[in-house]
Design goal:
Pfam families: adh_short_C2. By secondary structure, this protein is of the alpha/beta class. The chain has 8 helices and 7 strands; from the N terminus they run βαβαβαβαβαβαααβ. It has a 7-stranded parallel sheet, sandwiched between helices.
C-alpha cells in the first residue's frame, strides 16, 4: 500500500526556491520522491541548490524567474513542462517582507512587497492551473503568514499583512473554484522562522525576547518544521482538503 505522503513520480515547482523556506520545502518534496523545479530571480546559488536535490535521487531544474514578470513566468512554466512533462505540485513561496505604516510607506515600497507576495501567486497560478485543469489533477500550496490573520503591535507590517491576508482569501476562493477540476489549493501560514531573510532584520535580542515572551511555544520556528504541512498539502493525504490555511506558528494565532 502506498504511503499517503509518497510523492514518487510527481513533479513540483517551488518559487523562491534558492534558499530559506522555499528550499526546505523543496528538500521535503524531494525526500518523498518528487522531482523539483526551483524558480527564483536570485541566481547566485540556484544551480547549487538544484544539485543538492539531485544528490537526493530526484531530478531537479533551476530556472531564473521573477514571479512578477508575466513573460518570465510563462516561459518558466513552459520550460518545466518541457523538462518534466507535467506539473503536479505548485508551491507559491516567493515573497518578501517589509515594515512600514500606511501613513509613512512610499507607494513603491508598498508595491515591492505586495507584488511578489500576491501578484506572483496570481501569475504562477494563471499558467499552472491551465495545465492542471487539462490533467484534472493538481496540488497548489500558497505561502501565507500569521500576519495575514492577526495584527502586530511590535512592528507595523501593513503592506506585508495586507498581502498575506489576501493570500488567505485567495486560497479559499481558488480552492472553491478548482475543487471539481481535481485541484486542491491550500496555504501555510508561518509565524517567525529563522531564514536568511529574517535573520538580519528580526533576529535581534530586543525583538526576539519580545517574540519569545508572546509566542506560546517560546521560540521561533525552524524551517524544517514546515515539512509536515507542505507534505500534507502536496500529497494524497489532503485529497479532501482545499481552501484551507494551516498556521504553523507555535500557537501564536491561538492566543
Amino acid at each position: 500500500m502506498m504511503h499517503p505522503f509518497d510523492l514518487t513520480g510527481k513533479s513540483a515547482i517551488v518559487t523562491g526556491g534558492s534558499g530559506g523556506i522555499g528550499f526546505e520545502i523543496a528538500r521535503a518534496l524531494a525526500a518523498q520522491g518528487a522531482d523539483v523545479a526551483l524558480l527564483d530571480k536570485r541566481t547566485e546559488c540556484l544551480e547549487a541548490r538544484a544539485e543538492e536535490i539531485r544528490s537526493m535521487g530526484s531530478k531537479a531544474l533551476s530556472v531564473k524567474c521573477d514571479v512578477t514578470d508575466e513573460e518570465e513566468v510563462r516561459a518558466a512554466v513552459n520550460r518545466v513542462i518541457d523538462s518534466f512533462s507535467k506539473i503536479d505540485i505548485l508551491v507559491n513561496n516567493a515573497g518578501v517582507a517589509g515594515a512600514g505604516s500606511v501613513d509613512q510607506v512610499e507607494e513603491s515600497a508598498w508595491d515591492a512587497v505586495v507584488d511578489p507576495n500576491l501578484k506572483g501567486i496570481y501569475l504562477m497560478s494563471k499558467y499552472v492551473v491551465k495545465h492542471m485543469k487539462e490533467r484534472k489533477y493538481g496540488k497548489i500550496i500558497n505561502m501565507a503568514s500569521v500576519c495575514g490573520l492577526v495584527g502586530s503591535k511590535a512592528i507595523p507590517l501593513h503592506a506585508y499583512a495586507a498581502s498575506k491576508g489576501a493570500v488567505v482569501q485567495l486560497t479559499r476562493a481558488m480552492g472553491a473554484s478548482f475543487a471539481q477540476d481535481g485541484i486542491t489549493v491550500n496555504a501555510i501560514g508561518p509565524s517567525l522562522f529563522r531564514t536568511d531573510m529574517t535573520e538580519a532584520a528580526l533576529f535581534k535580542d530586543d525583538f526576539l525576547n519580545l517574540y519569545n515572551e508572546l509566542c506560546p511555544a517560546g521560540r521561533p520556528g525552524n524551517p524544517e518544521e514546515l515539512h509536515g504541512a507542505a507534505l500534507y498539502f502536496a500529497s494524497e493525504a489532503s485529497s479532501y482538503t482545499t481552501g484551507q490555511t494551516l498556521f504553523v506558528d507555535g500557537g501564536w494565532s491561538a492566543v
